[in-house]
Amino acid sequence: MILDRLGVTLPILQAPMAGVSSPAMAAAVSNAGGLGALGIGAAGVAGARTMIDQTRERTSQPFNVNLFVHAPARRNPAQDAAWIDHWRPEFARFGATPPARLDEIYTSFLTDDAMFAMLLDARPAVVSFHFGLPDAARITALRDAGATLLATATNLDEARAAQAAGVHAVVAQGWEAGGHRGMFDPDAPDDRLGTLALVRLCVRQTGLPVIAAGGIMDGAGIDAALALGAAAAQLGSAYIATDESLADAGYRATLAGPAAHHTTMTRTVSGRPARCLANRFTAAQGFAPDAIPDYPVAYDLGKALNAAAKAAGEPGYGAQWAGQGAPLCRNLPAAALTRTLAAEMRSIPAG
User: Reading across the β-sheet that carries 63-68, which strands appear in turn?
Assistant: First the structure.
């Protein structure tokens, strides 16, 4: 059973939220019987190794490290310049100037040899992929190093590709989920499958264990996912308000307010579709398909604008990712939340 392979006693996975999940959060969840997680795709090699080491100082239990496996950005200097000029007035509102140029701020695991080497040396128990799949050589090497491999899928074709690639389980990410859509090609048509339908399709039509993700916030939601045939549930938004979360005060305040009831899918913040709490940044819509630079180039500007706005006391330009279940968030320590989720469930499957 996949729970045995993951080394957990509870069918509860904490989502690997880059910029929100912390070593303290991951360790707390793992120590409580679930699977904690780190989002290392934005950390760089040295930062990722530090996060892994800090988590191991807090727990001897398995935890998940998550990688971005996106296609490298297609660079277009004219597009970048136009995007910078579009947001120049917003920077000026905060007494700031936009960056002179935009950079590809995250290296995809597709090409990051240094990150690959670090993982083979660190040997994390669980490695997961978001936005796509690495090549066969990397998957084989990670498997041979003892890692259990997970991959996000937003449709059945992606789930089948993960199965063919040799991962051990698929994370079926429904349209309800917060943060970045894990779709392999952000420009491809998106059927926007909800968690319920996607989980059932993956259970019935792939041979992989399925982990349900999207809109699950409590024990009843986990029970529902298990009833559909999922082996476990992955929760992200549920952990944003925990004590160990890295979410800042503005993020937490927005999560606790009316905006939690009005999440929206947007490419404006980062260049890839992502579900965010309604804020000043998400209100900017209606851009032509070719206006927004590729991920993560657009995110370079988004982060700069957020920094300028925060310095002026305006929190409404942050990447305040959250799913449609956001109003159900609870302010608890991560371990207490994990135990509460387990207590709310009707039953916990063996293995």
Answer: 12-14, 232-235, 210-213, 169-173, 148-153, 126-130, 63-68, 36-39
Question: What six digits make up the tokens of 278?
Answer: 């309604």
Q: How far apart are CA 211 and CA 130, in angstroms?
A: 14
The DSSP code sequence of 257-288 is: SGGGG--EEESTTTSS-EEE-S-TTTT-----
Q: How many domains does the chain have?
A: 2
Residue-wise pLDDT for 165-200, tens only, equals: 999 999 999 999 999 999 999 999 999 999 999 999
**Cα–Cα distance for residue pair 241/328, rounded to 1 Å:** 10
Average pLDDT of the segment spanning 19-47: 97
Whether 199 and 263 share a structural domain: no
**In-domain check, residue 324:** no
pLDDT digits (tens, 9 = 90+) for 254-301: 999 999 999 999 999 999 999 999 999 999 888 987 999 999 999 999
In degrees, rounded to 5, the angle at the alpha carbon of residue 284 between the alpha carbons of residues 18 and 44 is 20
Q: HEC string of 80-102?
A: HHHHHHHHHHHHHHCCCCCCCCC
**Intra-chain end-to-end CA distance of the chain, in Å:** 5
Element (H, E) at 340: helix 334-344
Specify the pTM: 0.95
User: What phi, psi does 282 have (nearest 5°)?
Assistant: -70, -20
| 295 secondary structure, DSSP code | T
Closest CA to 161 of 132, 204, 193: 132
133 in a structural domain? yes
CA distance linking residue 171 with residue 334, whole number of Å: 21
